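User: If only I could read backbone structure tokens as easily as an amino acid sequence. Underneath my words sits a plain record pairing an amino acid chain with its backbone structure tokens. This is the protein in question:
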Amino acid sequence: MSTPEKSGSTSTIVAAIRAKRERQPQTLSDIARMEADLVADIEAFDLDAAERRARREYLANSAAGMSDPRLVFPEIAPPLANAELGSRAFAGDQAGPSPAVEAPPDQPRETSSLLDQLRQQAALRQAEMHIALAERTAINEAVDQALKHLFFFLHELVQQLNIVKPGIPRVYPLVEQTVLDELVWQEGFADYRTQSQAAGALVELVSFSYHLYRQSVIRIERDGPSVERFRTMIFDYGLPFTCKEFKNDRAYVERAEFDIRCDVSVSVRWRADFAKGAIILETRNLERLGSAVYSLSPQAVDQALLDDFGRLVLGQPNRFRELLNRA
């Protein structure tokens, strides 16, 4: 409870504030009286009592009260476990810090004869696969390099022959005494094809084609059933022709006249056979009218073989077939 003196000083302060708000004049005596009241309140303040009161409030509001030994809390661990933990803690205090707990050693693994056999078989299989892959890669690269060598040679050969346009002294027998001869080089072309990038982009085909021509037409007559056989034959040769048929009253072809131009298309395909590690040579009208197929190893493709192939194209003496049979 407040004393009369404190109530009086408070009322004086309140009056001073009110007077200031109401803009009432204050005298120096009023101010001096207010200062005296404030000094008296300070001297009457009990510091020790205020400190004890603050300490009681802090202890009541803080968590320090939870450490009061008079408070009893239930045990979480069973008594036996607590006793063991206590004895271990006591022993640890007596002997010092406890060493690090070591993990138990791994149990010995029993060996399996079946798994050992499978491991050996797998290792052998992997080694065989690696060897086969290396061999296959070497073979594919050999075929690829041989075809590239072929293309470069044929490309240069075609360029020169397209300028020179030489006569080709080759005779193509057609039927009986009829032949195609005195032909002249007209135009040639060389090209190549590669695999996809995913397959390795290896050269898989080299093509070489050219036309031989002479300004002439050969007429050949055929009768009855031989008309269709002859028509199929010259169509397979790729020879350009026209046919005039003569039919009887029953619309049956009795005979036909074939006018064949002296225009021979020659094609040569060098195709890779990666599975067999070989090069397949497919020709049409190269040495004679019709098709032929040869097989050769990539090692056989050297400069001697290419030169003799060029002589074969020009109708000159050559050893091309002999060189094809080399390993």
